Amino acid sequence: MSYRFSFFFFTFLLLNSSTTSNAIQNPIKTVVVLVMENRSFDHILGWMKKLNPNIDGVTGSEFNLLSADDPNSIRFMFKDTAEYVDPNPGHRFDAIKEQIFGSQTAYVDPAPMSGFVQQAHSIDNSNKLAEHVMSGFTPDKVAVYKTLISEFALFDRWFSSVPTSTQPNRLYVHSATSHGATNNAALHLVKGYPQRTIFDNLHEAGLKFGIYFQNAPTTLFYRSLRKLKYLSTFHQYHLSFKRDAKKGKLPNYVVIEPSYFDTKILPGNDDHPSHDVYRGQMLVKEVYETLRASPQWNQTLFLITYDEHGGFYDHVPTPLRGIPSPDGIQSSENFNFDRLGVRVPTIAISPWIEKGTPLHVNEKLRNCYGDAVVHGAKGPTSTSEYEHSSIPATVKKIFNLPNFLNKRDEWAGTFEGIFQTRNEPRTDCPWNLPSPVKIRKTEADEEASLSEFQQELIQLGAVLKGDHVLTSYPHTIGNDMNVKQGKEYLEDSVKRFFEAGHFAKKMEVSEEHIVQMKPSLTSRPSKSSIRNA
Ligand SMILES: *[C@@H]1O[C@H](CO)[C@@H](O)[C@H](O)[C@H]1NC(C)=O
Ligand SMILES: *[C@H]1O[C@H](CO)[C@@H](O)[C@H](O)[C@H]1NC(C)=O
């Protein structure tokens, strides 16, 4: 794209604001997505409001009552004392209903966000967990984000897609639906979730994607990604990410999967409690610095978000109206996917994003504070919001793909506007980000029992390896494993699955097939059987 050409479109856009985004030549050729685990906006970034009052964060006047309906019960104020959290606050469907509405049966519009303490107290009556969920990090504890949001774009109105736990929300990120799941459903897991994904749409348009994983790719929860044709899109993060970035060989859509298990050699860096947020900061820093130094930097958009709020308090009412079910599939609780989950942190990074030109903010404040803050979505409908489906929706615009995935991404806000204001990329983006300090003083506890999310990954491993046909599946697989054993089991399963895939490809099995392993007692890659997709 020549300078003159892009300048022409830039002027045109200013003169004619009804121009569709397709009219502008898009500067982004590579979108990198990193989904962290289980933290709300206020918990991670709420206190950034101190640095920029434009941010819809916290002031310290926010509170929850121990008993949501009893004004005389103890008040838990929102503090800045977040450190390292062990046990995990509640985050399943009913628990979140209680956090949002103050009870599992009430429905109050707008949502009062009043039951976080009460729900935490029901898990741990010592008040310790209640205090944890009412706490946020001081900006310096998350210093990598502190720099990123002063340089690039912070979204302070981005919600998780569904008010429930990890897997359904992760499914929304790349497919704009969980296909009716509000929890991890064993049957679906075995088969893999059948919906169409953004990966399929990119592939059909002749574009490339790549998954860079550490322990295991959670993207294998999508059935379609298990197909042989996508085998070569999976890469070991530690072996390949830096190399591919350095060579300028990153594909158009890159998914970075953090380490979901905490061991001494490879600490968990997904920010999931009880993992140290310091490790997550170091992962974000590494990905950023790798991209910044890549020859592809000038065409890159790097997006960081969190799958869900993980039981931590957030003060912004979760949207309850005008949210379309993606596909009309109801959950087992008769939930229609017509309200969103709790607000989560999201940051967009690109040399095409202005340092000092916030979107949709007050002119006066804009002149005082340079930080870009992206507030609510401006369409395509009056109820549209930013949520995880905004990722496939924006990817569709960036790459000019012909179709939406379903009704949800068609509705979700898109944010291509934030990188369509310049006619050349910035050259002042920092090369390096700060290194925050370790928060947890102790080493990883490898003997710890598996979290629910880790158990779900073990179940995925069992499916990939073929162990799921053993009678114990799914309720007992992983029950007796500790973190170290679980990680080894999962990594071995993934390795065998990919080995079997490579073997099948050599045998010229059709690219549309999925390798189905036999139980591990008998299975070797060479004995795997191949079934139809
Ligand atoms: C990125 O663009 C800037 C501004 O046009 C230019 O100075 C720089 O050399 C480019 N970097 C790369 C790696 O192409
Ligand atoms: C994040 O991870 C858990 C499992 O430990 C997962 O199942 C859940 O949905 C998410 N929430 C929290 C707070 O852990």
Automatic annotation (TrEMBL):
<feature type="signal peptide">
    <location>
        <begin position="1"/>
        <end position="23"/>
    </location>
</feature>
<dbReference type="Pfam" id="PF04185">
    <property type="entry name" value="Phosphoesterase"/>
</dbReference>
<protein>
    <recommendedName>
        <fullName>Non-specific phospholipase C2</fullName>
    </recommendedName>
</protein>
<keyword id="KW-0732">Signal</keyword>
<keyword id="KW-0378">Hydrolase</keyword>
<dbReference type="GO" id="GO:0009395">
    <property type="term" value="P:phospholipid catabolic process"/>
</dbReference>
<dbReference type="InterPro" id="IPR007312">
    <property type="entry name" value="Phosphoesterase"/>
</dbReference>
<dbReference type="GO" id="GO:0016788">
    <property type="term" value="F:hydrolase activity, acting on ester bonds"/>
</dbReference>
<dbReference type="InterPro" id="IPR017850">
    <property type="entry name" value="Alkaline_phosphatase_core_sf"/>
</dbReference>
